[in-house]
Every structure is written in C-alpha cells, then in structure tokens.
Amino acid sequence: MSNEGEPTATGQGPQPESAPVIELNTTANGRVSGKGWKLEKAATRRTQMSSGLKTPYEERMDKTQREKSLKKLQLEMKEEKEGEVKRRREITIARKKAALERQQFEEMKAKMSAKKAARLKRRAGRSKKVNG
Q: Biased composition, Polar residues: where in the chain (predicted)?
C-alpha cells in the first residue's frame, strides 16, 4: 500500500514525494538582498602598521641607499656649480681691480708729466738763453 493520501506520523497531512527544491542564489550565508546593484560587504581591514613597515626591510634599505646616493650626487653637482660661479666671480673681480690700477696709474702718469712739464717750463724761463 502507498501512503500518498494518508497523514504521516507527525500528523501533518500528506507529503508529496517529489517537492520542488528552490535553489537560492549563491551569496554569503545564502542570503540575497534582492538588490542587484549592492556590493557584497566585507569586513573593514584596519591596521596599525605604517606603510613603511609593510614593505620588506631589504627594499626599504635599498630605497634609503638610493636616496642617499642621489642626495650625495646632487650635493656634489651643486658644489661644483657654486665653485665654478665663485671662480668666475673672482676672475671678474681681479680684472676690475687690474683695470682700476691701470687707470689710476695713467692718471698719476698724466699728473706727473704735467708737473714735470711745468717745472721744465719754469726752469727754462729762468735761463739767460731763453730770456735774452
């Protein structure tokens, strides 16, 4: 005999043997919000570790070494440039000083030759040959 129409031992009415099983969409815990545009939520990841500590020690040391060498190179280039500017400035100052000395010498020479010419003129005026 079949039990299709008779109540079961639990007292709930007849149970069909081939009840359709409804599949849920595969989501977290089988729940579906019904809103397709919503993203699946995940736990917030908060870390107290700084971003520098997240990279391996060797990489940090390599980066530090590269930065040091770059700074050293920049400093050398800057000092070389400043040295060149200083050298050119000293050359310019020396040229100006030499030109000033030459100019003062010429002025002194002109002044001395004028005095000498005046002295010779006075002397020539005293002689008997010129006066008389």
A: 1-15
